[in-house]
Amino acid sequence: MRGTQKNIWSGKVDYGPWLSFFLTTLQKQKRNLERKIETLPESDIKLGKTARALMRLFDEKKEWSVSETAKMLDLNINTAAKTIRKLLQDGYLVKHGTTKGAWYEKK
Hints:
A three-stranded antiparallel sheet has the order 1-3-2. The longest helix is centred in the first third of the chain and has 24 residues, at 16-39. It is built from six helices and three strands. α5 crosses α6 (77-89). Helices cover 63% and strands 9% of the residues. The chain is mostly helical.
């Protein structure tokens, strides 16, 4: 990198060292991110941002209703309901009750 900087104003610039440094750095970052992804639980990779946030609520309290989750996460009630339906379908949550009073818990 210094070789490139040293000759930058001379008009005869060799970008090879700088390019090599840049690409090596990108390659290292890619490897670091791959290692991070490998250590994540598979469930975290599959779930979207809203679903992960909703699932974290169950670490604080065992049982939640749709309206409570919507309020806690500042979500539209329909978004919360849709996310919960998807989590139910995928087997992350268990539903108790059948009406508006239904509540959910982590499986």
